[in-house]
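Recap from last week: sequence in, structure out.
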Amino acid sequence: MSRVTAALGGRLAFGGDYNPEQWPEDVWASDVALMKEAGVNLVSLGIFSWAWLEPKAGRYEFGWLDKILGLLHDGGIAVDLANASATPPPWFSVAHPDSLPVDVDGVRRSYGGRQAFCPSSPEYRAAAAALTEAIVARYADHPAVVMWHVHNEYGCHNWNCYCDTSAAAFRSWLQRRYGELEVLNDAWGTAFWSQRYYDWDEVIPPRRPSYNTFANPTQQLDFARFSSDELLDCYRAEAAIIRAGASQPVTTNFMDFFKPLDYWSWAQEMDLVSNDNYRLGHLGGTGATHNLSMSADLIRSLSDTAPWLLMEHSTSAVNWQPRNVPKAAGQMRRDSLSHVSRGADGALFFQWRASRAGAEKFHSALLPHAGTTSSRWREVCELGADLVKLAPVAGSRGTARIAIAFDWNAWWGVELDSHPSTDIDMMTAVRRWHRTLWEHGHTVDFVHPGRDLDRYQVVLVPSLYLVTDEAAASLAAVVARGGTVVVNHFSGIVDENDHIRLGGYPGAFTDLLGVRTEEFGPLLPDQQVTLTLAGDLVGAATGTVWTELIGTADHDVEVLATFADGMFAGRPAITRRRPEPGPQGSVGGVAWYLATVPDDATLSGVLLTACRQAGVAPALDIADWPAGLEVVVRENDDTRFVFALNAADSDVAVPATGTDLLTGAAWSPESRLAAGGAAVIAARRTPGGG
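Predicted structure tokens:
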């Protein structure tokens, strides 16, 4: 159980962002009363309050914050207190115009929105530090404060800055990384296009180059690393001030698969990992639900299976998508419980009271514009009551035996320009592979490929274009100990400097997979090839996006699909290698390779066959997994909690035994879950396992 959950009396957190400065003071007492009615027990306070807390440089006004903290504490509502550094007020930007960010074309951006600052700006960093020190000095011992919230959604609007200050900081970062200029020249491959540097001052960020050409790819890759690290340095500096003066845990809110920030590095700095997640309407209903689950799996993995906190999601529509569709009845409840099922020890929202002005005035909230007579308010109160019933779940952890190898460096690298095809999109592959298993009841972790993989029996490797020697060895070790690895095309191609691994593709994975590719054959958008299946794979099959000229290097490689037509007709398209037993009788595992983008049925056949043969089963023993049923398990030392969520239009069987915490009723293997319903079935764990 986290310190925050303990501070909430062992209850799951429920509440959201509270912005009392947007409202007259005579509304505040009513807010607290309604929070108590809804079951709110935690609010995030002060996130965008810099202009209110410091109306002029060095002059702090805390009276209003004193009052609202007192009201919340008297109402039994705990506070996640922000240090308010997310958006400098206009007076700061006017006083320090050089602190404003500069885009890739050299244009300095203005204030007037949020996060209008350069992460390397010494003026911004000094002002944010001073504000943090003042807030901590005043509120470190306030009884309402149970957690500290640094900044907000780092990098959401300013993940890169190309100004001269950033250029100097980038050079310092490079000097720490490479030491000598000659090492940088080698890493960046500056022998190409006469790019060699003879003085550190010549090195700049990858600003927009001359017309219709490409920037140096390793320079771009390093600038992505630098930009993530520079924002992380901002977080570290402010978190250090808080930790020096206060004892409560410190966090900042992630944004699930946010490309600019390497959250594997960030997660190590969090006392409690937290996340913001919103339904993406363009993915469609089922796609949006899957995306929510995949996001929660990532955050659980970043937290190393420890409980985490859903810091923001929405009760209904948001304001920033092209078409902001409201949530259907019951969807808010299922969304919230889906996050909890995947490890969240609470469900918070943006925001408490819907704004009447500003860019987010059409964003839904716990207390909607329609007020307390609305159906949305009734749903909010019902969810608050549900989360009280789920208090026994707090502190329990999720379990998974399947992992997807995911690395931000590989993501940055694979989507650089001047590659064989612009259709290689890492998140498309990751989402598709994860969804295939999600639709069949499997829970999947994400894992950095260079870290410990021993807890996983199956490791999936979709589009891991860039891979270090250490990560390649870690994945090979999975097979060496008897596990299964499934590798997608265009993986293992380059090292950490974006240098080609010579000797034939797939580079780092050639020996593991037992195949050698001589040439890539990317397909045009309207092209597809026919696949001839064999062995465990049956049926008609097609491939799109990609083909390869493959040879099999080992006798222990089985060809499960060949290209029936196209440029490489007759050559392998899907292979499986079962290495011979290793030294001392060690059991060899299985390594699959997909040299194309197979159709959905074929991909499902590959992944489900790989899991079944590895002995990995879904959360429940259901022969034909019903569409719309989501089942996830959390466990503690004593109890197994089976979360079952039914998004389908008809009831479904959920073969589990125990007590449904939401209703208090006994649950048997014959019990059925109503359409749109949810159940959390608790049962005592048997000694030694399940």
